[in-house]
Design brief:
single chain; 73 residues; mainly beta; 6 strands
């Protein structure tokens, strides 16, 4: 099944926070040699958490510690 660029995985990070891992954001190796991926954190109502400028700011997380919950279209 093909998914569009803005779709992704609904995940729970290692710290227990809900986030979206968009398919366009591929895991990469950081300077410390550890694998990370950018995710967008979500609030309790599954809305992106916005910064002071009103934009969703991606954060880094370790994909190995995340748990997949479902898909987001």
């Amino acid at each position: 099944m093909s998914r569009h660029a803005n779709s992704g995985l609904l995940i729970q990070t290692g710290s227990g926070k809900l986030a979206l891992w968009y398919h366009k954001d591929k895991p990469f190796e950081c300077n410390d040699g550890k694998t990370r991926v950018f995710v967008t954190l979500l609030d309790e109502e599954f809305r992106p958490i916005l910064d002071a400028d009103g934009k969703a700011k991606p954060v880094l997380t370790n994909p190995a510690t995340c748990r997949t919950i479902g898909f987001s279209d």
